[in-house]
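Translate sequence into structure tokens.
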Amino acid sequence: MTQTQLYIRPFAATESDYLALAAVLADESPEIPLSVSELKVDARHFETQGTLFERFALELGGEIVGFATLLAPFWSASSNKLNTRIAVKRMPGRQEIFAEGFAFVAERAKAYSPDALLSGGRSDDTEKMEFLEQQGFVETMRFPFKRIDLENASLDKFAEHRKRAEESGISIVPLASVKPNRPDWCRELYELENRLMGDVPLPDPYTPMEYEKFEIMANDPEASDHNWFFVAIDPHTNQYIGLTMLFPSKAKKESSFTGLTGILPDYRRRGIASALKLTSFDHARANGVRYIHTDNEENNPMGQLNREMGFRDIFSMVSHERKPAFPA
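Result follows.
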């Protein structure tokens, strides 16, 4: 690194700090840039959850070159583990900046006495992978990041899945269209998400957030457009039995990201997940989206379905853990 000393300060939540954060994250992962508005929504959700979230800017010669963040993992805030996220621009001396940023947040983590520290990064970011190994982290899970090009995807063979779902009476509709006639739509969505998330492979068992906090986030219009959320409804019970979410990118208009997609256990192996995805693809195309991105844990059956539908691996996000948090 240069002889200039690294200066670490609290993230100021100003427009300039957010712009710098967006630039650093885009430098690390140009395929999935985040806009300032999306980053603000992300921070607002951590505030709503009321869990630990501390972000610091890393400056070199007056320029922000990275960020260090200490936070509770979103999937299990009660696990007594803390996540350390270090993002640094690709530049000479990057490993040294990793080291100083990590040392800073790790020192702050000691006040919370965690059992373990978490971190992670892209599988193709050799500098970050080497750094984590040097710090005593070990790989725990791998999430291949995938993309489908809707202009060139061959999806005809999945049309039968949608036909089968329709013939069984399963309706697949935008969440926005059913909300006016379902006063408990948010509670129903909350319960469905929690049941589905219980089957999603994660580093620790999923812990649902309180409903009141979920309700605030679900009603945040900047966070999600419910015209891009699709639910499958059983005609006999009138209950949600499946879900897929799309989040159109505000940074790359031709791209979107798939959030949670899942089907309740009693309804699986009927082609409903494929039908949900096809419906979401149609909506994406109609709104100018060409590329859809997603990620799944490497052994998750949903990942296999995505590959069959034409998603192709780009890289993997790799989760790491250091336990004990502070080796003797």
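Note: The chain is about 35% helix and 30% strand.
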